[in-house]
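Give me structure tokens for this 110-residue protein.
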Amino acid sequence: YSKEPLALMTSNDEPQWSDFVNCVLKALIVAEKYNITQERADEMPTTDVFGKRYKNMFINAVGAVGNYDEIYKRHMEAIIPRRGINMINNGTSGRMYSHPFGNLFNKAHI
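Here you go.
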């Protein structure tokens, strides 16, 4: 498994875009959790969070690239095999993991 943080980054000066990107990422993870694949993307819910124009954003995202697992298998599996902490917690584990924050204690203040 891998402990290095692999995450999406967006600009601080575009909070609505950041919210949009994070919602899509969460939808891809939820799609994996409920086994909604690219083939079954139409099972994703609609939303009005970003207005009517983006009503099908979750359906479109999963339909375009698949769920999180499908994306991972296509692009990352050969580099970092997905197991352990890289798996979705499906309730069979109490596991929670926080990525390292670096040195939280500045020695000058201790």
